[in-house]
Each structure stands twice: as C-alpha cells, then as structure tokens.
Amino acid sequence: MKRRFRCPVQTKKEFVVEVLSGYRVEAVARQHGLSPKTLGNWVRQYQDEVDELMVKKQNETKQIKQDAAQFQDLQKKYEDAVKLLGEKELEIHMLRDLVKKKYPDWK
C-alpha cells in the first residue's frame, strides 16, 4: 500500500500561491516532491482563498512601499532641518564673537 502524504493546509496554500504567481504546476510539484495531479487538485480547491490572500499581500506591499517613500521624505526633511539648525548655531556663534570683539565687557 502506498503511503499518503499529509500536508498542513497552510503549506498547501503556499504551494498554490507559487503556482498562481506564475510557476508551472509541474515545476512546483517536482520541487516539493508532489504529484502534479495532487497539486492541480489543491490549486482548484484553494484558488479562491489564495486569491484573496494574494490581493491582501499586494495591498500590504503597496502600503509598505508608500510608507518607505514617506519615511525617506521625512528623513530628508529631518537632515535638511539639522543642517539648517547647525548653520544657524554657527551664525549665532560668529555674531557673538564679533560682539565680544567690539564690546569686550559684554557677556
């Protein structure tokens, strides 16, 4: 009697995601040691559920990219602000030195 391969549902869905993302059923089946027919059945069985998960992942990926772009913009603004602050502090220091030279008794 042939031994049956028991696989958790989450793992099955991961294999289905691979197939739906563009890989051939035969290639994915061979890579994971499965029968192409079994994997094809899983694809038909879990396709609707996995499609929803793939859409959610795509939305999350878009959100992450937007957040990364926003973070880079904020980081650039912060660096500009720090640079400006440094310039202002330098300017204040130079002006104080000039005042001290002209009025040595001034604190």
Q: How are the SSEs placed, and which strands pair?
A:
Layout: H1 9-20, H2 25-32, H3 36-102
Helix pairs in contact: 1-3, 2-3
Organism: Paenibacillus pseudetheri
Protein name: Transposase
Pfam family, one: HTH_Tnp_1
Care to give the gist of this entry?
This protein has helices spanning 9-20, 25-32, 36-102. The chain is mostly helical and 107 residues long. Helix 1 packs across helix 3 (36-102) and helix 2 crosses helix 3.
Report what the structure shows:
Helices cover 81% and strands 0% of the residues. The protein has one domain (9-102). The longest helix has 67 residues, at 36-102. It is rod-shaped. The chain contains 3 helices and no strands. The N and C termini lie far apart (98 Å). Helix 1 crosses helix 3 (36-102) and helix 2 crosses helix 3 (36-102). Residues 43-91 form a coiled coil. InterPro entries: Homeodomain-like_sf, Transposase_8.
Task: Label this structure with key terms.
107 residues; mainly alpha; 3 helices
* Strand residue content: under 5%
What's the number of extended β-strand segments?
0
- Gyration radius over CA: 31 Å
Q: Quick one: overall form?
A: rod-shaped
| Overall mean confidence score, pLDDT | 87
Specify the helix fraction band.
over 70%
